[in-house]
Amino acid sequence: MKFKFRLEALLRVRQRLEEVAEMEFAKALGNLKSLEEELKMQKEKLKKEEERLRDGMEEGIMSSDFNFRCQLISHMEQKCRELDQRLKQAKVELAQARGQLRQRHMDTELVSGLKDRDLKRYLKEVDAELQKELDELVSLSHARDRSKNR
């Protein structure tokens, strides 16, 4: 008699859902890291452009160049604000993906625990059956030995 878990199909489905949740979590984490890096680079560019504007003002910059640099800085600041908003949204999505992964993992563990419990019960039954067969063999052997000795 072979062990057959009655909820094996459910366990496979839950394991697959957990794998999908892991992939979604990894995707959300990658997106967050990418946005953090992009924001960091954008802030560095902004800082350099602000330094150029300051240096230009000290050296005497033309008004057209001054206006251009001011507009560029304004555009870069807007881009930083947009990236910051996207970063906040990415953090929310990561938290949701983490919660989904945690739930999927608990669902899988629940069914896996049932499988472990059923397997222990099955092994206990098999052990009892084997012990019963051994007891019968010992009894038969003992009876045969007694009949030979008479």
Short description:
The protein has 150 residues and is mostly helical.
Question: What does this protein structure show overall?
Answer:
The structure is a single chain. This protein has 150 residues and is mainly α. Helix content is 93%, strand content 0%. It has 2 helices and no strands. The chain has helices spanning 8-59, 63-149. Helix 1 (8-59) runs antiparallel to helix 2 (63-149). It is rod-shaped and about 125 Å long. It starts with 7 loop residues before the first helix and ends with a helix. The relative contact order is 0.13. The mean pLDDT is 93.
What percent of the residues sit in helical stretches (DSSP H or I)? over 70%
Q: Proportion of β residues?
A: under 5%
Secondary-structure element pattern, one letter each: HH
Number of helices: 2
- Global outline: rod-shaped
Mean pLDDT: 93
Largest sheet: none
- How many β-strand stretches? 0
Query: Over the alpha carbons, how many angstroms does the gyration radius reach?
Result: 35 Å
What structural class do you assign from the helix and strand content?
mainly alpha
The low-confidence runs, each spanning 5 or more residues with pLDDT under 50, are none
